[in-house]
Amino acid sequence: xxxxxxxxxxxxxxxxxxxxxxxxxxxxxxxxxxxxxxxxxxxxxxxxxxxxxxxxxxxxxxxxxxxxxxxxxxxxxxxxxxxxxxxxxxxxxxxxxxxxxxxxxxxxxxxxxxxxxxxxxxxxxxxxxxxxxxxxxxxxxxxxxxxxxxxxxxxxxxxxxxxxxxxxxxxx
Length: 172
What we know:
The chain is mostly beta strands. The chain has one domain (about 1-25, about 45-170). The chain contains 1 helix and 7 strands. The chain has a 7-stranded antiparallel β-sheet. The longest helix has 25 residues, at about 1-25. The two termini are about 25 Å apart.
């Protein structure tokens, strides 16, 4: 799952970089007016979108499989510092509701994912956090999952720092 998240974020970064290259042309001709900022020293692009969210989430607290429908909001911010450095910050927030099987309980489900990457010359640091909440009726425990992954890679392409931690709990 972590590999999928990293690959997804990298794919999004590639698409956003292409968008960054075309951004001045999309907005129209460049103006020489001092009221327009120069992007020679740096450039930042923000993209957002909302998409339907349909998934099945397991609830290990009561062994339900929760069929969820909702909305996912994507926010991607890319910054090129003009000196070979690149920063990507993304947030993916999903909210929805669903019915558990076999219990028939109605659940509220929320998943908050963030990914940040700082590519500087030399080295790269990437960090991702995923928080999932499956909130059931008062008569059952809520499921909470927290995952954190961080990696720093030096100029030689060797990981120098890695951190990977997952915690889960059932709370009433």
